[in-house]
Every structure is written in C-alpha cells, then in structure tokens.
Amino acid sequence: MTTVIARILLRYVAAALVAHGLLSPDLGGFISHDPDIETAVNVFAGVFVGALSEGWYFLAHRYGWAK
Q1: Between 55 and 37, where is the model more confident?
Q2: Looking at residue 17, what is its pLDDT?
Q3: Is the pLDDT of residue 29 over 60?
Q4: How far is CA 52 from CA 4, 45, 46, in A?
Q5: d(CA 43, CA 18)
Q6: At how many degrees (to 10) do helices 3-19 and 35-62 cross?
Q7: 38 Cβ contact partners less than 8 Å away, ≥ 6 residues apart
Q8: Are 31 and 53 in contact, with CB atoms under 8 Å apart?
Q9: Does 1 have pLDDT greater than 60?
C-alpha cells in the first residue's frame, strides 16, 4: 500500500469516527495528518496481507486446493 492510499484511508476513517462522535475533530485531524500513524498503517497493512497470503497457502495445502 502506498503512502498516498494510506493517507486517503486515514482521512476517511478519521472523518467517519468524527461524524459518529467517537473522536473529537482535533484528534481526527491529527490522525489523518500524522506521518507516524501513516507509517504504522502501512506496516500493519503489509503484515496483514502477508499473514493473509500465508494463511491461504496453508489452507490450500491442508484441504488439497493446491492441486
């Protein structure tokens, strides 16, 4: 995931949380513009995609889908 996509996703998530009253507008702005949070989202997305593909590989071999 590129940093541009992560930044856009953070803006939408922060806006949704502010709209529902779960975050204050100041905290929502902080989340959508902080480069450290953006980096953390990128790392999490990379780990998630890697774990998902390895899990799928495991299931494919276990249930014979890899043939």
Answers
A1: 55
A2: 87
A3: yes
A4: 22, 10, 10
A5: 24
A6: 100
A7: 3, 6, 7, 10
A8: no
A9: no
Give the DSSP per-residue string, 13-58: HHHHHHHTTSS-HHHHHHHHH-HHHHHHHHHHHHHHHHHHHHHHHH
Please state, rounded to an integer, the average pLDDT across all residues of the chain.
Answer: 87
Whole-model pTM: value is 0.64
53 residue type, one letter: S
Query: Helix (H, G, I), strand (E, B), or coil: what is residue 66?
Result: coil
Q: Are 38 and 10 in contact (CB under 8 A)?
A: yes
In whole angstroms, what is the distance from residue 66 CA to residue 56 CA? 10
User: How far is the C-alpha of 10 from the C-alpha of 33, rounded, in Å?
Assistant: 8
CA distance 11 to 44: 17
